[in-house]
Amino acid sequence: MADSRILVAVPEHPRGEGAASQQLRKIRDAIEAGGFEVTWALTAEDADAVLRTEAGLAAALVAWNLPRTAGDGPGAALAAPGSTLARPGSTLDGTPGGGAVLRRIGRRFQDLPVFLVTADEGVRDLPLWVSETVVGYVWPLEDTPGFIAGRITTAARAYRESVLPPFFRALRRFHDAHEYSWHTPAHSGGVAFLKSPAGRAFHDYFGERLLRSDLSISVEELGSLFEHTGPIGEAERNAARVFGSDLTYFVLHGDSTCNRLVGHFSVTRDEIALVDRNCHKSVLHGLVVSGARPVYLVPTRNGYGLAGPLPPAEIAADAVAARIAAHPLTEGAVSPHPQYAVFTNSTYDGLSYDAVPTARAFAASTPRLHFDEAWFAYARFHPLYAGRYGMSVDEEAFPGPDRPTVFATQSTHKLLAALSQSAMVHVRPAPRAPVEHDRFNEALMMHGTTSPLYPMIASLDVATAMMDGPQGEWLIDEAVTEAIRFRQEMVHLRRRIERAGDRPPWFFGAWQPDTVTDPATAEQLPFEEAAPELLRTEQACWLLEPGADWHGFLGLTDGHCMLDPVKVTLTCPGISATGEMAEEGIPARVLTAYLATRRIVVEKTDSYTTLILFSMGITKGKWGTLLDALTDFKALYDADAPLERVLPEAVAAHPRRYAGLTLRELCQEMHDHLRSARLVELLDLAFQQLPQPVAPPQHCYQRLVRGGTERVRISAAADRVAAAMVTVTPPGIPVLMPGESVGAPDGPLLRYLAALESFDRRFPGFRSETHGVTIDEETGDYLIECLVQDAER
């Protein structure tokens, strides 16, 4: 591997004149002659900085008597009781700096070869855990530099090879063999691209290595994605071990394909499926393919318009039975008992369930349970999320014959390090609904491809390796820690603005508890004053307490739902979590349009909230830049800056609409419109009062492809039957499913869609993304796909 380094953490300066310095310098020279770079650290703080920033280490040489610098400094984490390194012996309790560095290595790396430099007295007085951490001891003056360097570089080479996961290792070896390709793809390792100007530009941009690794399924030594043999099969079995499943399958078309695959396998034509209404549209696609009859379960919503969890009362067996009995389409079902249930965990906005109690509740109604964890692939790898993910529902946590078969589908690429579209299906079968590999594989082959992109498979393999062992927790912990720092800084900044008295006392908020309780002391603390160590380790700090105003959801019970700290929802002035609207407000669409001018792209935007994600790629500079942009927006708003200065592209695109307006005027005009149209309230009604089902989704799809549908203006769509799903983004949840009645002219759905249509006309450039809606370019009217009326009958 390129850029492999060896850390030498010793108190002797490399330019020193003492015997030890000279000998260590010779060891360094011998290591570099062996093909490695050496990074020298003189203190524990220096070593800590290297360990936090350098992932390419192949070995380390650490002196037990490495000094530590007192006070604040780059390595303060080594001494701080509340730091991410806080472990027995890692604070200033008499343990030498070398011991603290060994602790950090144990958290940061798995099986990194570490050699301990000891004093003349030897190893007799060292703690027992040290011998379990290091692979050898070094007395620099007792062996030759070449011998010592040879021991270190030999261990480093073995480590470099061992960190490569199965498929990626095999792919590298195949690439290094430089074999001629006589199979597809036709570009033959990129050679074909070199024969045209455009192709040469493509080759130069992506590089030969990527193109050489784009191989055919014919390469036998790399295994088969459908037969699960060779290195691919080994990589999937390794992923099952790391992610805690019995079976794991690599999928190359994202969590959308995973959802379709699991739905297609789990439920058949005219069987009942329980479906979280807060579901991705791919879940519906799976039901269309299978021909199932969906019965929708309704999640809670708060005043911001954010979708909450399914409340416990909604998934209780008696409530499910009542929904099935009242559903118009279940009368002709194969059985009144659902065969499959699917729900979103965590939600887009970071809400996750207590997995085992939730599985127990669903198990009373169905034998198969699907956790759609598109945004939650990292949950297993940090103790803060213990018991909050699908694969935690195992035989130990849920013993006995009632345990359902559990599926977890994950977009590995979303918040772990994998290439786009890379995803996994994890399965934990139960005796009441067995999952035989060969049968599941038949469904997989229907939705997979016989021309897989091998770099995508390698990225799944590498994403798995990155989560394996202590490094997985370290990587996720870093994201959690940075999210907490940002959240607390948002509150501190608001408090400073309020205390300053020289500017309007408002600022953006972060959706989170106002106070937290330390379980060890029962002390209640303001969120911004809580120790980061408490917030990053105590799940109780993030639970949604029943009835709490900060989250605004009704019907919750203790422990049922938890907010994920890495999914940060910023709140804008104008409305509260309980739905109370203020006289003045700043719609989030204006804020995110401004952020885009600062090259800051958020994940999603609702009426008064916007979501940002703290992934493993987060840095202090990244969130510091966001804070700066938020404070700049406030200054521009308070100064009533001309809109041409704040959003010049919007004004240039629609000069007749926005020329002459100020930022504050636009915000207030948009806020007044949202308030008079009651858009957030109508959103809640549209999602809580579900449309009447008329026809199964598969029937609607058949009519769609055979010309039995027509596009209808929403102003004329009353009581028509939808032929395609309508999904408004934000919030990204279907408001209308195929086969459902659009409802009465004054019903919640048409009023909501009409309000969206009116908003889009009045505020061009700020419209919602609405899937399933076609917009008439001349009139701006919304058109939706409906069954032709004779087909409706």
Automatic annotation (TrEMBL):
Pfam families membership: OKR_DC_1, OKR_DC_1_C, OKR_DC_1_N
UniProt keyword annotation of Repressor present: no
GO biological process, one term: L-arginine catabolic process
PROSITE patterns in UniProt: OKR_DC_1
Record key words, sorted: Decarboxylase, Lyase, Pyridoxal phosphate
InterPro entries: OKR_de-COase_N (IPR005308), Orn/lys/arg_de-COase (IPR011193), Orn/Lys/Arg_deCO2ase_major_dom (IPR000310), Prn/Lys/Arg_de-COase_C (IPR008286), Prn/Lys/Arg_de-COase_C_sf (IPR036633), PyrdxlP-dep_Trfase (IPR015424), PyrdxlP-dep_Trfase_major (IPR015421), PyrdxlP-dep_Trfase_small (IPR015422)
Protein name: Arginine decarboxylase
Organism annotation: Streptomyces lacrimifluminis
Chain's gene name: ldcC
